[in-house]
Amino acid sequence: MTTRRWLVLIATLLAVALTARLGAWQLDRASHKLALQAAVDAEAARPPLRNADLGDAAVHRGVVLRGTWVTERTVWLDNRPMDSRAGFYVVTPLRLAGRADAVLVQRGWAPRDPTDRSRVPPLATPPGEVEITGRLAAAPSRLYELGQGAAGVIRQNLDPAAFAAESGLVLLPLTVVQTAPAGADDGLLRHWPAPDLGLHKHYGYAFQWFALCALIVGLYVWFQLLRPRLRRQPS
């Protein structure tokens, strides 16, 4: 075997080992995501927490909470689509009954006025004590934003810690994604996307790496083994 053929063989073996390892790594990450998804599903299946139980709160746990809306602190998060429509996520603090703290509630989605971006639609917020159902979540999804962002009613992002300092409210570190209206229908959509852990992405990447590995093997077999033999055969 010539030096060139040895170099091609070594390069092929290295490429096959690398692509196979990367494919296996993606499958390993997918298995970790499967375990995480199982933990999320198990947490969501547990009985919902009430006001007094929030000390043991965990993300994705269901909740049934009572409190009063801090209506004047409602924030409209811009550029949040739902059902392929442009609009806002409506976030209002809920002052928890029987406690000194509050929690930010992602109440639902409202459409944006296409003729006036600074206008928000009317929002029916019941006065007095209400009961809401939902699930615990981290901070609202964050979008790319230049600078520190505005501090008005319409915002691009909302940082709970900064909002607590701004509003003077004592806020829990988690938020609530509301899944049903509190009392009468408030007109908000709640077609929240299911928590996506990126499982299918890892399977897709693994398929790509293994396909590339198979392609490298196939190209080596064809150009280094089969094609030279075919050329040597008498016509």
Automatic annotation (TrEMBL):
InterPro entries: Surf1/Shy1, Surf1/Surf4
Protein name: SURF1-like protein
Membrane-spanning parts: 203-223
Membrane-related topology note: Multi-pass membrane protein
Keyword annotations from UniProtKB, A to Z: Cell membrane, Membrane, Transmembrane, Transmembrane helix
Pfam family, one: SURF1
Recorded family membership: Belongs to the SURF1 family.
Native source species: Pelomonas margarita
Predominant cellular place of this UniProt entry's protein: membrane
Subcellular location as annotated: Cell membrane; Membrane
